[in-house]
UniProtKB/TrEMBL annotation:
Gene3D superfamilies: P-loop containing nucleotide triphosphate hydrolases (3.40.50.300). Keywords: Hydrolase. This is Arsenic-transporting ATPase. Belongs to the arsA ATPase family. Its EC number is 3.6.3.16. It comes from the Bacteria. PANTHER family: ARSENICAL PUMP-DRIVING ATPASE ARSENITE-TRANSLOCATING ATPASE, ATPASE GET3. Residues 3-286 form the ArsA/GET3 Anion-transporting ATPase-like domain. Pfam families: ArsA_ATPase (PF02374). The keyword Ribosomal protein does not apply. It is an enzyme of class 3 (hydrolase). It comes from Clostridium formicaceticum. One of its GO terms (molecular function) is ATP binding.
Length: 295
């Protein structure tokens, strides 16, 4: 089964989870087996789908073909450490194991564990669509740059002392291919959609430009931008809202100029909270209206 990966990025609070969930419901309704995963520590998939989700893949109620998971970073780090240490336990004494455990306690181990979990899903072919509601932009970029850095780092450390900040290089050497494959998939436009969600305002536009350029530097193209939170035109009657609507439209136009070769979708504000399958179907009918290239 050929899997399509769809990654959502953007500053905290721009509506990534809403847009990722809308997209997940849309594809599940198209009959595609869909998984939505979040690596965001402030994850709230449980809230928006109104059911308990957590660290294991969970079937979403009230809809066919949709599954979700919230990656728990502490659990992921423990699992990653244990997997790294398991081969050593049979070969070395307690003292060496302790040294290795200490080396596996750095902050980079936590990042690697999250990324490791993330690429486990990129290796699996149980789903037709895998959607990552990723962590806020800066953090995401760092996670995505890790495999590039680590591939180099693993090679260089193998020539040197054989130590990395994650422990003996031999333990992670076999991960190098996994990381290289993951980056290759992220760069492959047939396999991966990288979508930025932004609000129609100055800081959000600047952040999206910067983040999109950061990704471009590591060979990952932005394939779509969703401008979320736009006031409906018919509501922009009162002078306050009219002025706000006009400012928003100015930033929509600016975004179209800057990202002239990237498809841009707009999403208007709803008068109620975006949560639950029915609401996501409503937002989906707006988001995917007449956009045949998403079928």
């Amino acid at each position: 089964m050929e899997t399509k990966f769809i990654l959502f990025s953007g500053k905290g609070g721009v509506g990534k989870t809403s847009m990722a969930s809308t997209t997940a419901v849309y594809y599940a309704d198209q009959g595609k087996k869909t998984l939505i995963v979040t690596t965001d520590p402030a994850a709230n998939l449980s809230d928006v789908f109104e059911q308990e989700i957590g660290h294991n893949i969970t079937k979403i109620n009230g809809i066919e073909n949709l599954y979700a998971m919230e990656i728990d970073s502490d659990k992921a780090t423990m699992e990653y450490k244990e997997r790294s240490l398991a081969p050593m336990r049979e070969l070395f004494g307690e003292e060496l194991i302790q040294v290795a455990e200490e080396q596996l306690s750095g902050p980079c181990t936590e990042e690697m564990a999250a990324f490791d979990k993330f690429i486990d899903f990129m290796d699996a072919d149980d789903y037709e669509i895998v959607i990552f509601d990723t962590a806020p932009t800066g953090h995401t970029i760092r996670l995505l740059e890790l495999p590039v850095d680590w591939s180099k780092h693993i090679e260089e450390s193998a020539k040197g002392s054989g130590q990395t900040c994650m422990g003996p290089v031999a333990l992670i050497q076999d991960s190098k291919k996994k990381y290289d494959d993951a980056i290759a998939k992220l760069r492959d436009l047939h396999k991966t959609d990288f979508i930025f969600v932004m609000q129609p305002e100055q800081t959000s536009l600047e952040e999206t430009i910067r983040s999109s350029e950061d990704l471009q530097e590591i060979g990952i193209k932005t394939t779509r931008i969703i401008i979320n939170g736009i006031l409906p035109k018919e509501e922009a009657i009162h002078p306050f809202f009219k002025k706000k609507y006009e400012r928003q439209q100015m930033y929509v136009e600016k975004a179209r100029e800057v990202f002239e070769n990237i498809p841009i979708q707009t999403m208007t504000l709803f008068d109620s909270e975006l949560k639950g399958i029915d609401m996501f179907r409503k937002s989906g009918s707006k988001l995917f209206k007449g956009s045949g290239h998403h079928e």
